[in-house]
TrEMBL record:
SMART domains recorded: HAMP
Entry-linked InterPro entries: Bact_2-comp_sensor_kinase, HAMP_dom, HATPase_C_sf, HATPase_dom, Sig_transdc_His_kin_internal
Record protein name field: HAMP domain-containing protein
Entry membrane topology: Multi-pass membrane protein
Entry keyword set: Cell membrane, Kinase, Membrane, Phosphoprotein, Transferase, Transmembrane, Transmembrane helix
Pfam annotation, one family: His_kinase
Major subcellular site: membrane
Length: 621
């Protein structure tokens, strides 16, 4: 269906192009140029895209590897910082006795001050004493570092504390990218989350009993990590995420993008088996996700890059190639047009004369110039026109006369047969009834005869149906109430032009093979409907039908050409199917090979379809 529609749309353009050889040459070379330019553009675009992806993978992977190692070193430094810088025994003793020994308390405060002064990325330092349910914390007030002590409820239900207890390294990391549950935030340390990048919690245990004694918490700002991660090239559309081994985010450039990628399962795909790169798509675009996983703990540094950005250079190159190709195409078409027109000008003149000849101008004469192959064709064309002029005219006239004669002969064969049956019906009616009904029958017969001898070969369906009504009125005299007639004719087909006496031929066949062979009531249905390609007129009865062997003979006889039919064979056949054969031949002469008869018969009756191509009588008449 789509192919047919496209063909109808482009048919006028194709027809116009095909009229001239120059147009065909232009079209040929244009197609070749388009194919060459398109192929080169496609191949170069594909190679550039592949090269761009490989370059992005190589450069970004190396960059992430270097930055990831620096971040890993940074975390190692934080871990070292969280361990006591002096004797662990002394520090543990101070924690155990800080509430009762002033010296131990001062020892702890001095340790926290020194720790806070040791780095510029420490935003706050907390030391929670578990058995006392209080914590020391370092603050900066009026440029002075002050250590304060505050009571605090138990921290057993805090998630970072649970992770530190379960960790074989007695530590845990706390992220501030996502909001913590309200129940947990209410008992956590009062930290300014807008300034803090990470919370590092070190669990201090007793060497003897391994029971937890205190928790040292370091809250780090992003001054150092920003300095490290600025070495990663970053542009609009790209994203950057620093994620812990358990997929907890610590640095993200876009929280919404992180949430969407996590919900879509991107983080689960970032495994060592994927060689540091995966392809992932969200609702908006497709990304090349390059990532580095630290060897020590498994921290992930992830950088999703849109493919549109990777392909930007390749896309620009493709547009430039297309522009150059179009310019080259225009110049080539101009050169090919000029050259083709000079070569094909003599052929154009010859084709014009041949066109005149094909439309019936038998005095066409081509101009002969030069001695090349085109001049040779022109001379022989002129000779052909001269020799075939009289033959074509004579043959054309003979065909017209022959066709008209065949049509008249077919019509003449039907009329005597009908006249014989009609007279027989009148005689039978007169002998049986001896009443005034004969007057009506004679009138119907007169009008029927007038219709039959009219000089028209094709009539409107409305006229043919009126004739059938008169004809069946005559036949009613023979069969009485045994003959029932039903009409189901589409009103839109009343103006349909059909061969004269065509429906009568089909009705006669019903009478011959149904009414005349049984003594019961027979119903004849005359119908007309339209299909996608044909107008179909059907006449059917509910008689005994035609046996299979006889039906096969009739259908075979319909395939024989009128000129090839055997008169002796028809006489031996009893002339039973001559009307159908004549009608089938008339249909094909008037409407072409698409027209014809179709017969279906069974023990429940016979149906005959007269199929006429939609559009009516065409060029066949």
């Amino acid at each position: 269906m789509i192919r047919r529609t496209l063909y109808k749309l482009f048919e006028p353009l194709l027809e116009r192009i095909s009229r001239r050889l120059a147009n065909k040459l232009i079209l040929l070379f244009t197609i070749i140029i388009i194919l060459v330019v398109s192929s080169l553009t496609y191949i170069s675009y594909g190679m550039l895209r592949k090269e761009s992806v490989n370059n992005s993978i190589a450069s970004t992977s190396n960059n992430l590897l270097l930055v990831g190692r620096n971040l890993e070193s940074y975390l190692s430094g934080i871990e070292q910082l969280s361990l006591p810088q002096i004797s662990y025994d002394e520090f543990a003793y101070a924690i155990l006795h800080e509430s009762e020994d002033y010296g131990s308390k001062m020892y702890v405060e001095d340790y926290l001050k020194n720790l806070y002064f040791s780095r510029n990325d420490l935003e706050a330092v907390y030391l929670y004493v578990i058995k006392e349910h209080k914590y020391y914390y370092v603050t900066k007030e009026n440029y002075n570092i002050t250590v304060r002590v505050t009571e605090h409820p138990p921290i057993d239900n805090l998630s970072w504390y649970k992770r530190a207890l379960a960790s074989p390294f007695n530590r845990s990391y706390q992220s501030f990218v996502e909001e913590a549950p309200a129940a947990e935030s209410s008992v956590d340390y009062p930290v300014n989350k807008d300034k803090v990048f990470m919370g590092y919690h070190r669990l201090l245990r007793s060497i003897v009993s391994r029971e937890p004694q205190a928790v040292l918490s370091l809250y780090l700002n992003s001054s150092v990590t920003d300095e490290i991660m600025k070495d990663i090239p970053f542009s609009t559309g790209q994203h950057l995420m620093y994620i812990s081994p358990d997929n907890e985010p610590f640095t993200v450039d876009d929280k919404e993008f992180y949430q969407g990628s996590r919900e879509a399962g991107l983080l689960d795909q970032l495994t060592p088996e994927k060689n540091g790169r995966v392809t992932w798509s969200d609702e908006e675009q497709k990304y090349l996700v390059i990532y580095d996983i630290s060897q020590k703990e498994g921290w992930k540094l992830v950088k999703p890059i849109p493919y549109t950005e990777i392909y930007a250079a390749a896309t620009t190159t493709r547009k430039l190639n297309v522009f150059i190709g179009l310019l080259f195409l225009v110049l080539s078409v101009v050169l090919v047009s000029v050259t083709s027109n000079r070569i094909t000008h003599p052929l154009k003149n010859l084709s014009l004369q041949m066109k005149r000849f094909s439309t019936g101008s038998f005095d066409a004469e081509a101009t002969v110039e030069g001695k090349d192959e085109i001049a040779y064709l022109s001379r022989h064309f002129n000779k052909m026109v001269e020799k075939t002029n009289e033959l074509i005219n004579e043959r054309y006239k003979m065909k017209i006369v022959e066709k008209n004669a065949v049509l008249k002969a077919l019509e003449a064969e039907i009329n005597p047969h009908f006249l014989y049956n009609a007279l027989q019906a009148i005689s039978t009616k007169a002998l049986k009834n001896n009443n005034d009904d004969i007057v009506e029958m004679v009138d119907n017969l007169a009008m029927t005869l007038r219709y039959c001898i009219s000089g028209r070969d094709v009539v409107q369906a409305r006229e043919e149906l009126r004739h059938i009504e008169r004809y069946l009125a005559l036949q009613k005299a023979r069969f009485g109430s045994r003959m029932q007639v039903v009409y189901d004719w589409d009103e839109s087909l009343m103006e349909l032009r059909i061969p004269k006496l065509s429906i009568q031929t089909l009705v006669e066949n019903c009478i011959k093979h149904a009414l005349e062979k049984v003594s019961t009531t027979v119903t004849i249905r005359i119908e007309a409907h339209v299909t996608a390609t044909h107008s179909v007129i059907s006449v059917r009865d509910d008689g005994p039908g035609i046996n299979e062997e006889r039906l096969e003979q009739v259908m075979s006889s319909l395939q024989i050409q009128w000129e090839d039919r055997d008169s002796e064979a028809e006489e031996e056949d009893g002339n039973e199917s001559i009307g159908l054969k004549n009608l089938n031949t008339r249909l094909k002469l008037l409407y072409g090979e698409e027209a014809g008869l179709a017969i279906h018969s069974s023990e429940h009756g016979t149906q005959m379809d007269m199929r006429l191509p939609r559009g009516g009588v065409g060029q066949h008449v």
